[in-house]
Amino acid sequence: MSAHKGLALMCAAALALVTSAVQASPHEKTHSAMAMSASVPGWLVGTWKLVRCDNVYPDGRRVELYGRDPQGLWMIDRHGHYMMMIARAKSLPFASGDKTRGTTAEYRAASLDMNAHFGRVAIRGGRMIMHIERASFPNWNGHGGTRRYTREGDRLTYIVAKPTSGTSAGARGEVVWQRLD
Questions:
Q1: What CATH number should be reported for the domain holding residue 161?
Q2: 63, 68, 120, 136 - which has most CB atoms within 10 Å?
């Protein structure tokens, strides 16, 4: 089985669990309000493969947050529930082989090499609206925002105006996805 198929199967199972968890979550009123005021167009529904995830600085310099060949999937159902996972293509394993016995450096690398979250996404007034239910970076839990986006065929790019890294130097995030299905 290819890495993408394995990751897709894992994300599909997680999306099914997320969909039922979000429907029963304490944030249901927020999700219902978003669903009523925004929509999920057919072109957004499906599975997307990560192309790039960079910080772009005012001088034009780019920093590839997950290396040269970042890996990732973003799965969105017709109700706007999504599951997103972004990872560095090559991460070093923990020397101990035990997830609970990593070094400070190993835990730091694991945190910076992977980004996962789930929640709701919709389009309203030419803007993308995201609400993060849970994230591997806990500061994002319960937060979201509106993002500018462009779509060219099966390629979608959205801009994160204030990413969680690089903002002191004026960076903006740029995330590019390619539709798989």
A1: 2.40.128.280
A2: 120
